[in-house]
Each structure stands twice: as C-alpha cells, then as structure tokens.
Amino acid sequence: MRTRSLLLLCAATVACAQNPSPSTAPATASSSATVASKPVASSSQDSLGKPGPGALSIPFANPFPSTYKPFPSRTTLIRNATIMTAAGPTMQNASILLRDGKIVSVGTSVTAPSDAVIIDGTGKYVTPGIIDVHSHLGVYAAPGGGGLNDGNEATNPNTANVWAEHSVWPQDPQFPRILAGGVTTVQILPGSANLFGGRSAILKVVPSRTVQGMKFPDAKYGLKMACGENPKRVYASRGPSTRMGNVAGYRAAYIQAAEYRRKWDEWNANHKGPPPTRDLALETLAEVLRGDILPQMHCYRADEMAQMMDVAKEFGFKIRAFHHAVEAYKIADLLRENGTGAAMWADWGGFKEEAMDGIRANLALVSAAGVKAMIHSDDPSGSQRLNQEVAKAMYAGRAAGLNVTEDEAIKWMTINPAWALELDDKIGSLVPGKNADVVLWSGDPFSIYTKAEKVWIDGAKLYDRDDPSSNWRTDFDLGFVKGGSL
Amino acid sequence: MKTQLLCAMCATLFTAATAASAQTVAITGGTVYTVSGAPIQNGTVLIRDGKIVAVGASVTVPSDAQRIDATGKIVTPGFIDASTQLGLVEISAEPSTRDQNARGTDGVAAAFRSWDGLNSESVNWAPARNEGVTSAVVAPSGGLIGGQASVVDLVDGSTTEMIRRAPVAMVAQVNNPRGAGTGARGELLGKLRTLIEDVKFYQAHRSDYDRAASRNLSAPRADLEAMIPVVEGKLPLVIDADRVDDIRGALRLAKEYNLKIMIAGGAEAWLAADELAAAHVPVIAGAMNNIPTSFETLNQRQENVGILSKAGVQVAIIGNNGDGDEESFNVRNVKYEAGNAVAYGMSHDAALRAVTLAPAEMFGVADHVGSLQVGRDANVVVWSGDPFEFSTRVEHVLIHGKESMSPSRQDLLTKRYMTLPPDYTKP
To answer: ipTM of this predicted complex?
Structure first.
C-alpha cells in the first residue's frame, strides 16, 4: 500500500540501485604476494608513545580534533526513583547526584547539596544514557534525497580512506529526535556497500555547528567493514561478486596494511630518510592492526562471522563487534571464545537471504552464552526506541525459557555498547566518577507507554519533555517542520 | 457474456471453507473486549462451529464444551492489520519471492488481482498469527494504480480457504509522481482524472469499444473494467498520500467523482483532521513516525492517529515505521504500533478498535471479523495482559474457532540452537 523504502537495504541500495560501475582500480589491488601473511604482533612498537585517537602515521595524528565542551550544567539530584545502574542490581527509592558533569553518588542515602536542583523521581526510572553503536544519522540525514545521501562511498570496495565524520550533517533533524528517545552517544558508521566502508564517528547527541563539536573526546575510531550480500551486490560487475571474493578483498588489504605499518614503524623508530608516502586507507588499516581502531563489522550469517574471526586472527587483530549479527545465536560460543561482541536488532529479519534466520531470542541467547550482547538500530526510527527494542528482546528470551533479568537487559543498551566503543570507563553505567549521561523515564523503560522525560549529557539537561520550548530544534526544523512533540 | 465478466470483476465474497470444528469452545473468566460494546468483566465467549454463539457475563456453558480458562486475562477479537504484503513478499530483496508489484501499463495495474499470487505456505504467516493477528489486508503497491487488495484470514489452509473477501479495495498513490509515470504532482492527478474519465467513457461506450470504434483510452480494457466499481463508488480506492496537500488533492478528487476513498500513510493527515472527518474518509496510518524523512512527510508526528481519532476520523493502525519489514516478517508488531499510539494520546479503546473493528468496517468484513459478537467468525485471542504491552504473552489464538498457534520457522530455529552445537538430526 505504501511505497517501501528499506533504509537498511538502502544502506547498500541507495548506492547500488544506481548501479555504480566504478572505473578506478581498487586501492588494494592484488596484494604483493611476497608479504608474508603470518600473524602480526599487535603490541605497538611506536616510538611516539601512547597513540591518540586519530591516524597515527605521525605527524598527522589527529587532524580533526574534538571541540566538544560540555553544556552548562547545574548540580542535580534525582530522588525517590528506581535506578537501573547497569553496574549492579536495580535500586528502589534511590537517588543520584550529578555535579560538574559527573555522577557523584548513587544510592539510597544520597544527600542533596544546598545548590542542587531536586527532581522527584517517584514512580519514575533512571538509566544511563542509551548508546547506539550503529547509526547513520547525519550521513543519511533527513529529509533524505540525493543531496543528503552521504553514507556509502560506493565507488570502490575498499574505501578505508573515508571518514564518516566528513559526511555528517550536524543539522540532521534526526539528532534531537533520538536524544528525546534517551540516546546520548552514537557511533555513526558509513554504509555497508563496501568491504571497508571507512572510519566511524563517535558523537555525543548535542547541538553543534560543527561535527567537531559533537565528537566524543578521545574516543577511538571504529572501522566499518561489511560481509556478505551488500558488497557483492554493489560490485557484482567489477568484483567482488561472491563471498569468496569478499574474503580475498579483506585479506589483500590487510597484507598491504601490514607492509605499510612495518615501513612506518621502521621510520618512526629511526627517522631515516624521508617518511613513507601516506595512504589514508592503509593508515586506517594499519591502526586496526595496532589495535587503535576498532573494527565494527556488518555481518549476518554465522558461517561468515566465524570466517571473519579467522581472517582477523590471520592478521593479528580483533573484530570488536559484529553488527546485525542476525545469526549470532548460532555461534555464541565462538563469539565468546574470541571476545567479540554482537550488536543486534530485536526482531528484524527476513528481508534478504542472509537475514532469513533472524529470531527474537537472538540477544538473549547470545547474552546467556557470555557474549557482550547489545541492541543497535541502523535506523533513525528504531534509534528513538531502543528501550522498546530491548524490551522485545528481553521478553522473547524469557518466552524461550531463558532467565533474562532486567538488570542484564539494561546492559544491552548501555554498558555493552560502551564496551564496543571502548568507552566503558567513561559512559554506560551509573557509577560515581563517570560522565553524567542520564535518562529519567516516566516509568519502566521496558513498558510501551514509557517515555524519556529528561536527558542529561555530561550533567547538562539537553532534553526535557515537560519544557518543549527548551528543546533543541535543528536549523532544518525551523520553518520546514511545524512541530509536535519529539 | 458482458454481465458475466462484470460479475467476475465485482466484489466476490468467499465463504470460509475451513472445516470448522464442530466442537463447542468456551473461553471463560476473562475480561472480554468485544470492541463493538463495553468490556465485560468475567465474561464468556461461546463458540460453536467456528462462530461466536454467545458473549456475556452470564453465558451458560454446555457441559460438552472445551473450556479455555481466561481468568485474569484479556480476550479480544483477533487483530487485523490493514496494510500487509503477507503472502505476496517472502524475502523482500529476493525478486523471485516478490509478487506485490505488477508491471501494469504506464503505471496502471488496476486489473492486478494481487491475491491470485498469494503464497499460502509463506513462513511469514505463523509469526503474525502466533502474536494475535488473525486477518490482514493484503495489498499490492507501485505505479499510479497498484492493483486490487484482499482480506485474508490467517488460517492454516489453502489460498481459497484464506481469502475472506476480494477485492476489498483498489490501491493508488499520489505521493510520488515519478513512480506513477509522471513528472509532477499536478500531472499525476491529471492522469488519475483522465483514467477516471476514460473508465466512465468506456462504461458508456463498451460496445463501440468492442467494435474498435472508440477513441483511444488511457488504459487497457481489463484495467478499465477493474476500475468500474471504483468509479461507481462501490469499491474503495485506497490512496497513499502523506503530504497534507496531497491528502487534500485526494479529497477533492473523491468529491468531484463521488469516489469512496481512504487515505493510507497519511503522515500529515492530522493537519486535515477536520476535513477528513467531515468527508468521512478513513485513514490508515502508523504511530511511530516523527522524523521528516522526506519532503512529503515533514510534519509527521506520533500524535497523528490520536488527533485523527479525537476528530472523529475512522483510523486503522498499521506498521508504517518505514523499516523492519512490518508488512511481512514483522506484521506481528502492529500491536506495538497501537501501544505507541496510546503513549502519544490515543485512547486505549480507540487504539484497540484501530487494529480490529475499524479495519474490518473499512474493508467491508465487519459482519465476519473485528468484534466479538454473536454470529461473527470466532477469531479470538487470549492475552496474558494488555495486548499492547511487551510483557504480555499471547496464550490462545482461535481462527474460525480453531486453536491456530503453531511453531514458526523462527521458533524451530530458536529451539535448535538453544544448546550449542546443535543437533542437526532434530527438527
């Protein structure tokens, strides 16, 4: 009845529907077979000390630094609330104190400083800010259309050289809408058209004129990689056109990256002669090999995930998390052994052959096996309601006979995605000393009738359902959008 | 001969051929939401031969009746999703399994009877059925005129047994001029007008047409024939329209030609709520959209269906979130769409009606499904609690009086992989 526009497919089809026939040779053309493909030690031999978040092929370590500054905040105490900390059991009739952008204390005997804004949380719930590890906000900005279609550089199966932040439009009206759903941190990924889609951007969901003003300070970059149907469909005419072609493509690229890394490590150690020529794609892949960039891999099928974990072993790196991971439940044991996480939908499936085996108990089964399980959206609408997605997944687990507690499920949208971004020391749970990214919910976050009422990022209240005039409206919203609640 | 042809084209009522169990079933003790009337505490729904024979607080249960104890539970009519592609789309990215989009002629596929390609063996029926959806409007899409829709009951049977009524509507869209084979909105509406005029002309000059003595008409004969009941105002024309001006354009067209229309999608319908109510035009919409995803949907908001309902517009709630395959794999989630509608201002009663009796009325099957009344088909769901809540489980799904829950493919996969490695010799 309605013209469907599967955004998820669009991650590939937006690009591939136009049948791209790129003429340029792959950046990682057939590998130099002379480079040994033995495992590369991941311990850094850099002479320049602790790596920064940017490219480490010095001296260009961090060319687009974060300029984010926390918004003004007031000391705030929420009391009499049910607090789900994601770090321990849910606390009843508890309080949480936020000061100077940090969580100061959480518990049943927190006292309010005299200057604190006091919020009565009776009947309400408090959780950490939600973290969406798979978003295309800003790169596929609303209202869409070709002018804002910046998510897939579908001109080459290897575009490890591109950075999502260079596509992000800070005025994407989707940003304030996910903030209103309690999302405080997002990983913006390039699409899945390519084997290597490019670097991710880790952003705080805050208003800003620039992307730099949204960037999470000192967050490691991710690298989007993609398995399966999308790359082989997009590049059907030039290759890779098969799954074996995909795997050959990853391996060829890492062979080159290992060689690139060796040359730079050598030069960094002795500074003899001119530095090697920079290559943006290899720079990113070399950082993956050094463990400084976290591979975030779009992969549906169990057998492909198992093979990608072997590819990673071959080159001495670790895939941080598989995304979509529709069949993660089939290899939960392998994921646990590899220490690789899985970012999943509650119940998407069936829309393509590699998604045929999607089940609602996926998160629960994977979590029960001891894997870092997390919800993700890949979708601006889903991103607004990740609590609802977790609810579906949690109750599906219980229906399947698993004892999934709410304290476990809350981790799927907070501390586990924080772990996937290696930010679990800063965000993802309500623990003293951590960033005060906090959501106050109108009730149980796993009820369909519950809404996020107030959202704080670094202690600053950036969303308030009860005070619409105070809420963020993007430039796009002005004039184009009549309003209504977020 | 012409009369025969006409009759074949006009609304055909299929009688449900499922061998309804002769058994008598009594669902007792639950809170019964009949939808057609007030909820009944501690009510009984008595079913015989696949039909509801009694509903109330003081129904005598025959001694031979099979009892379903619904004490502490909620009993509702089976849910009806007014916009699905169940049985037409198995795997949306796999063209060989897609049968919802006819080629047609220059954007017009009015003769396309989408149910002729219905796949009764689709794996997508069971997940919807197991979560309380017992009937669905199965609709084509694409072009200017997408084709004809049917209402199916989700019985585990043959296509003939499933189809409750067909056609129930003709499907059109005014959202996307290019998709309709035109270049601009005005041109699209002009094309629709031309088609309607040609249908009228054809109807008045059929014998000239058959002697090849007619002027050229904008659509082939089969499409013109199929459009006759639409032009006569007998078959509803479901018009996909999101932008408020497109909705108003559809309303003007309906008025001009006395068409019976419904608006589907209706992202900005709340801006024309009073006009829609005055024109008695129903709206088929979701409740989880508030993103200006396109220039047609800039003002969509989650309060949409609640505002429409309060204004007196007949509303059917559908999965219309844009992604996640809500029209096939995830039809089951229509109940959560209704729950979100309640969270954003619709009354619970109105939301329940919007997934049961409202779509039944809109598509002409309310005498069979959509409410718990004597004489209606026994499509009944027993829920452990509020049907819209995540924590609620579906406990019984009766279709035509028969228990109809069965393991879905997803259930089988879940069972197989509960322990790793799996045993591939087990089902």
So the answer is: 0.94
